[in-house]
Sequence to fold (442 residues):
Amino acid sequence: MTSERRSSASEPDTEEIPSPDLVSEATRVLMENWRGLYTVPASGLYPHQWSWDSAFIAVGLRHVSPRRAQQELESLLGAQWADGRLPQIVFASGRDDEYSPGASFWRSELIPGSAPVPTAGLIQPPNHAWAALLVHEADPEESRRRRFLDRAYPRLVAWHEYLRRRRSDEAGLAFTVHPWETGMDNSPAWDAPLAAVRGTFGGNVPRPDLRHADVTERPSNAEYEKYLSLAATYRDAGCDDSVAATPFRVTDPGVTALWIRSELALGRIAEELGIEADHADRAAALTEALEDLWDAELGCYVPVDRVSCEPQRFRSITGLLPLIVPDLLHVDELLGTLHGEHFRLGRSVLVPSFDLTAPEFDTSRYWRGPAWFNTAWVLVNGLLECGLETEARVLADTMGARAVESDFAEYLDPITGAAHGTRRFSWTAALSLDLHVRLLEY
Fold:
């Protein structure tokens, strides 16, 4: 880390952006969406438990109730498959017609080694160990009393082992077998790998999501048709991770960055439990391997299609998330890209999910341009990792103000700030609350 970066003269002055009632309103959203053992992302559009959502939600929920935050993660870990995977979705009973694809599509109970409850077979990015450590730190005494980490640690290790044994490419980086697994469903970075996948769903494409969100904000029918076809291929192969069962195989820098940060968190958890483990070495190996995804011309990391072996040369939010990784080689270049014309940190609303100058950029359609609160939260932590505390506080303050102003919208137009998607969104509330408590309350 250079001293010039830590004391950059280009850092903006801290701007006080009022966020009235952020704490009370964010808490209210989290309580509204609590379902006894876990939190739904939002009432209506998302009636089940989502994997990386629950981890993000637990980060904010720990400021409201550390015990509930522990339960949030424990509920998800309780749906772990025998091979170690944490499923993308844990389905609530009686809600199958409210989200597609639901439990009747996945039929996970027919797959050997699946969870004791209905789940999807896909996964999502591994932010869970990072969340578990933060939840423990919110109330270490209560965490130790409940043996939270004692019970979570072996399950989290098994999760990371699944990624290492079943989901790593020749470089040792995690690959995804469906755009949904990246958490950034319809990013333009997946267009070419998805277009190369043969096969069709062969039926009507159910779209219950359009009862809750405008068609201009959601993935298209054509995209959903391909998503369902790809998911059905994986399901029909028993959710096997072999090449034959996974015609979409993409290595994503954002997924790997979260894996590294969670591997380091596992190291901290192991120390707390008095366990000797090699998590730091594994994180270092992943950090070295991540350099395979660096694109010097674009100034960011890029996904690679492991079927065609072609890098997906776009500037997208996933390529900036490695800023959370300690000892990264290309921090200065990444910060230049974040501040430059493609993302315009401090001049756009939060951080766009895709290159503002690209022809594929869309202000309202899901991950093709809109600004999301979860990726902004990750980048606040990245700025802190870089020693840019002033910029981190400004982005955190903006998140809080925009969250309240938009009624905790799912995502925002990065140019106008207009709210899109559903409202009263749990991770918007949780992560804005987390940063407010950590960085902005005095």
The chain has one domain: 3-440. Residues 3-440 form a domain with the Glycosyltransferase fold (CATH 1.50.10.10).
